[in-house]
Amino acid sequence: MRLARLLRGAASAGPGPGLRAACPSASRSLTSDSGSGPAPELGVPGQVDFYARFSPSPLSMKQFLDFGSVNACEKTSFMFLRQELPVRLANIMKEISLLPDNLLRTPSVQLVQSWYIQSLQELLDFKDKSAEDAKTIYDFIIWWKRQRKPISSKTHRKHKSKLQCS
Q1: Residues 125-146: tens digit of each pLDDT
Q2: Angstrom distance (rounded) from CA 130 to CA 92
Q3: Which of the listed CATH numbers 1.20.272.10, 1.20.140.20, 1.25.40.10, 1.20.140.10 matches domain 2-165?
Q4: Where are the domains of the chain?
Q5: What's the chain look like in SS3?
Q6: Cβ atoms of residues 19 and 83 within 8 Å
Q7: Localized where (predicted)?
Q8: Predicted TM-score (pTM) of this structure
Q9: pLDDT at 21
Q10: Where is pLDDT greater, at 53 or 13?
């Protein structure tokens, strides 16, 4: 499996108990058959396989806007996102792994894959944190902002030529 080859060397995030649905509209429970989520010894490939088994929650634009204006609760948002984001990242990672081998070997695709791996590992650090803890929510918001930050000019310049050659 191409994804397994890429992820073989990646460090394990070591998730614990499975995620529980937090958003009323998302009633699924992300637990394995044993109820404990993906086994930590499976590492990143096992985590990707586990979370990719689930479909992302479909949200209409109306639901998205209503949630932000009517139910603007940080705890609910945190609980929903810590469940939803691993599923979305894992599904994207699986889709990337379906690219042709010659494209997967390019530095630009490998760079993007490494960003997804790092994001998934960091995101799973929040999986077992309490939404009742204000510091946890603060740390999550800081992490999210850092993830959404544009690529630094140094990284952009470094990889610009590689991206153009791909």
Answers
A1: 878 777 777 777 778 778 777 7
A2: 27
A3: 1.20.140.20
A4: 2-165
A5: CHHHHHHCCCCCCCCCCCECCCCCCCCCCECCCCCCCCCHHHHHHHHHHHHHCCCCCCCCHHHHHHHHHCCCCHHHHHHHHHHHHHHHHHHHHHHHHCCCHHHHCCHHHHHHHHHHHHHHHHHHCCCCCCCCCHHHHHHHHHHHHHHHCCCCHHHHHHHHHHHHHC
A6: yes
A7: Mitochondrion matrix
A8: 0.64
A9: 32
A10: 53
What type of residue sits at position 131?
A
Residue in this structure with the two tokens 């994207």, named with its chain if needed:
92
Q: What is the pLDDT confidence band of residue 57, given thresholds at 50, 70 and 90?
A: confident
The token pair at 165 is 């050659």
Tokens representing 6 are 């890429």
Q: In this structure, what token pair is assigned to residue 96?
A: 């990337």
